[in-house]
Design a protein that fits this description.
This protein is of the alpha+beta class. It folds into 2 domains: about 1-35; about 45-190, Sandwich (lipopolysaccharide transport protein A fold). The protein has 1 helix and 11 strands, in the order αβββββββββββ. The termini are far apart. The relative contact order is 0.09.
Length: about 190
């Protein structure tokens, strides 16, 4: 009778042992593999000598973005640019250019954050001389013809140098607003030679 009970208990014992072993193996595997929420920030593609152009309804180029290298990251859908050059065109021709050491292009392409040795140049217009803006960080929204920064800036033209912290520049209307700590030095064009 005892041997009959042991014969009946043995398969139940084996099933319980296998069940416990499978739970233990699953727990070990779960600890060893990283969770799906951990994403790696690896590029999914790289483009050398990158060029992108946006045209208007009439087919004319509105702006061109060039870079020595563009690296796209899938995890956050961002694009990083090395030595970017942005040129904005109007019906009157080239008006505003911007360049920097690096840039980050938003996932929808609407904004470009230029960083490191940023230089924005507005070509001479009518009776206004060339305008050069220098800063370390500048966010440009090409479709809105708008640039802004909260960093220190230097603005130069033929007759003045202005130092400030922060600016908003609508380069379509040529309105420039300096945010704080503004200091301007005026100089005659003959004194600059």
């Amino acid at each position: 009778m005892l041997s009959d009970r042991l014969a009946l208990a043995f398969p139940v014992f084996v099933v319980l042992l296998l069940t416990a072993l499978s739970f233990w193996l699953e727990a070990v595997v779960q600890k060893a593999s990283p969770p799906d929420t951990v994403r790696r920030h690896d590029p999914d593609f790289i483009v050398d000598n990158f060029v992108a152009r946006q045209t208007g309804a009439d087919g004319l180029v509105l702006h061109t973005l060039r870079a020595r290298r563009m690296t796209h990251y899938l995890d956050d859908d961002s694009s990083h640019l090395e030595e970017p050059r942005l040129a904005h065109f109007t019906t009157k021709g080239l008006e505003v250019t911007a360049r920097s050491d690096n840039a980050r292009l938003s996932s929808d392409g609407a904004t470009i954050e230029l960083t490191g040795n940023v230089r924005l140049t507005r070509a001479p217009v009518a009776n206004q001389s060339e305008l050069v803006l220098l800063t370390e960080s500048l966010v440009v929204t090409p479709d809105r013809h708008f640039a802004r920064t909260d960093q220190p800036v230097v603005i130069r033209n033929a007759t003045s140098r202005t130092d400030a912290v922060g600016l908003e520049f609508d380069y379509n209307t040529r309105q420039l607003e300096l945010l704080r700590d503004v200091r301007t030095t005026w100089q005659s064009p003959s004194a600059r030679r």
